[in-house]
Amino acid sequence: MAKQIPSHAQVVIIGGGIHGCSVAYHLAKEGWKDVVLLERKQLTSGTTWHAAGLVGQLQGSHATTTFAKYGIDLLEEIEAETGQNPGYRRSGSISIAVNDERHAELKRKADFARLFGIEAHAMSTEEIRERWPLMNPEGVLGGIYMPSDGSANPIDLTTALAKGARMHGAQIFEHIKVEEVLLENGKAAGVRTSKGTIRADVVVNCGGMWARDLGRQSGVGVPIHACEHYYLVTEAIPDLPADLPVLRSYCDGTYWKEDAGKLLFGFAHFHAKAWAKDGIPEEFEFDSLPFVEDDVMDVLELAMNRVPLLQETGIRTFFNGPESYSYDGRFTLGQAPDINNYYVLAGVNSTGIQSGPGAGRALAQWIMKGHPPIDLSEMDPARCEEFQARDPYLRERCPETLVLTYAMHWPNRQRETARNLRRTPFHHALKARGACFAEAQGWERPGWFAREGMTPEYEYSFYRQNWFDCAQEEQKAARDAVAMIDYSMLGKLMVEGRDAESFLQRVCTNDMAMPAGKVAYTLMLNARGGIESDVTVARHGNDAFMVMSSISHTRRDYLHLRDQIAEGEDVRLRDVTSAYGVLGLMGPKSREVLAEVSDIDLSNEAFPFNSLQRFYVGHAEVFAQRLSYSGELGWEIFVTPDFAEHVFEVLEAAGKPHGLRLIGGEALNALRIEKGFVHWGHDMAYTEAPHQIGLSFACKPKKSIPFIGRDAYLARKEENKGPFLLYLKLDESEPLLHHNEPVLRDGQVAGYVTAGAYGATIGSAVGLCLISPADGSNGKAGLAEGQYSVLVEGREVPATVSLQPFYDPKNARMLG
What we know:
816 residues; D-Amino Acid Oxidase, Chain A, domain 2; Gyrase A, domain 2; eight-stranded mixed beta sheet; 19 helices; GcvT_C; FAD-dependent oxidoreductase; GCVT_N
C-alpha cells in the first residue's frame, strides 16, 4: 500500500533529480527532519538519468567552482555514509588546444585553478598522446591536465543522496505530480498534488525542465528551456584502458570518456535546437528523442578525425536527450523575487552532476540561514527581466547557450540571438557614427566606435582585440578633451511620496535628508552589513527622489526597494528608465562644450559636484547631474525621448571644435578601473562590507534614522577583516588583464583580479583586486608591501599594488 503524503511539511521540494535530492539530503543532514520531496514519475527520470556524469572541479565562476569542488568531496565520502556507491572514478581530465587562442584560454583556466588549490598543469602534445594513445595528435598544441577530475554514475549518485536524505529523516514520494504551488499573502504556503494537499513553510522548485512552467503558474520567471543534446556510445573496444582520463577537445566540440570498456563521446553542438516548444509530454519518463544524424554530422566528422578508432568501431547507442539551458549560461538559484519562501534551483547547463551536490547544499544553507551562504549574485532569479522568461525569447537564446558551452569563452563575448530588442533614443544616430553595439538586459549599448573603413563588429581574442586602438583613443579623449556616451539604459527609479525621505534614510547608508537639487552616492546594505547595491540618489523635490541603478541590476534594485516599503508608509516606486534618454559628457573641456549650448552658469561654485539643475540645451528642457564614472569633470544630461536626438546633435556640433569623441562601454570600463571606481556584481556583492571596498565614506551611522545593517556594518568595520579591495597595475605594458587572474604576493596566492582593462593613461593593464592579509591578520596596513605579481597564462607578471587609485587619487580633476 502506497504511503500517504503528510498534510504538512516544513519544506516541500518539487523534483526528484540530482538537485532536488541534493537539497533534501543537505536539509535533512543539518537537522531539518520535516522535509518532503515529490517526484512526478520516478527519481532521475527527467534528465538526470541520461547525463554523461562528468565531474570536473574547475568551472566558470567562483561559485560554480566552489560547488564542483565540494561535489568531489561528497563523491569520496557518501558511500561510507549511505552504503550506496555513486560510481565515482577519479580518472583525471585532459583538455586540448588546437590553436593559440584556445591554448591561452586553457592556461588561464589553469591559473584560475590556483585560487582554489586545484591541481592543474600544462601537458605537451607528446605527454597527452602517451596518456591518451587513441588521440590523433595532429594540430594539438598542448593541453591542461587536472588529475582530480573524473566521472560518476548519475543514477547512483542521486540514489545515494536520496538514501542519505531518508536516513536523516526526509520523506520522498514518487509518482505524485505537483499541480499547483499554493500562495497566500505573497508567500508560498504549500502544494496541491495529484494525491492531495501539503501545507508547507517553504517550497523549492527543482523541477528541471519543468521548472519554467511550474514557476510561471505562480508568476515566477525561471529563464530556461530544454534543448536537444546528443552523445554516442561505441561497441566494446578490446584492450581499452580503464583509466583513460576524460578528454575534452573544445574546438572539435567533443568530449570522450571510457565507459565499461566502451567510449562515450558527447557533443557541444555547433547548431542546437530547442525542444518541447509546445510543452513537455505528460507521459515523459526515462525518454529519449529521435536521433537526427544531420544534427551531429559536422561534429561527428571532427570526432572521427580526432579519435580515428571511431572510423572502424561500431556505435552501440545513438542517444538524444533533452537538457535545460538558461538564457545567459548561468544557474537560477535562490529565492523567487516576488514570492517569499519560494526557492528555485534550475538551469545548470549540462553541469548538473558535477554541480548538483554543491548547488543543493548552497540552496539548503540559504533556506536554513535565511540568506545566501556565499556570493551567489550571478545566479539571482531577480536578474531576469520579465521578457527574458517568456518562451519566444528562451527558444532563441537557450540553444545559443548550448552552442557556447564548448565555444571560446572570449572576454566580452556578445550574444548573437534575440538582439536589437531595446534601443535608446540615440541608437540610430550612434549606429550611423560607427557604433559597435554590445548587449545587456536586452539593451543595445555602444561598446566602441569603429574608425572610418572599419567594420563595427567584435573580433575576439585573449590579446588585443580589433577595437583596442579605438578604445584607447576614446579613453584619451575623455582624459584630454571631451567625450560623450549614451547612458540611457541605466536604471532610473522614482521614489515618491510623503515618506520618501524617511524611507530612503532607512534603506540607504548615506544621508538622504538633503535639499532638492542635491545628489548622493550611497549603498544599500543587508542586515549582515553586506552591500546589496550601490546607487546614486538625486532629490528632485520635497517628496521625489530618483535612484540611478546599473543596467544589469535595475530590476533587482527595484525589487529590493519595493520589499523595504513598510506597511502604512506613503512611498510610491516607479521605473522610469525608458522615460529619459541620458548622455554622459565628460572630460576637461566638457564645461566649455556645455556652456556653449546652455543658458546657465556652469562654474564650480554655481554647479558643484553632486548637484542637479534644470536648464535648456538648444531648444530642449533637460536636467543634468554633475557626476562622473570616468574620474573626470562631467555631467549626466537627461532629456525626454522626443528631444533626445536634437540634444545629441547640438552637443555633438558644439563639441567638435573641442575634440569631442563618442565613446563606448569598453573605454568607460577602463576609465573607471584606472580611477578605482567599483561595480556591484564584479568588485563587490552582498558578501562584502563597505570597509572592505573602501566605501565607508558613503555610510553615515550617526544620522537620525538608522540605516538597515548599521550595527552589523559598525561591528564588521571594528573587526576590520578582509579581503580588501586594492588597486593594481602590471609593470609590463604588453599583457592584458580581464578578470579572475590570481594575484600573488611573494609567490603565494593572496587574492584575484575582480575587473581588468588596459589603462591608456597608465600605459599598462590595470585592475581592481581583492587581497587578503597575510597570516590571518586584520586591516589594510602593510597590504601593499611585498613582491606582487599576477598569473597570466602561467607566467608571473610583476605588478604594483596600491592602497589608492593610480589615477588622480585626490579627485582634483573630477571636482575641479
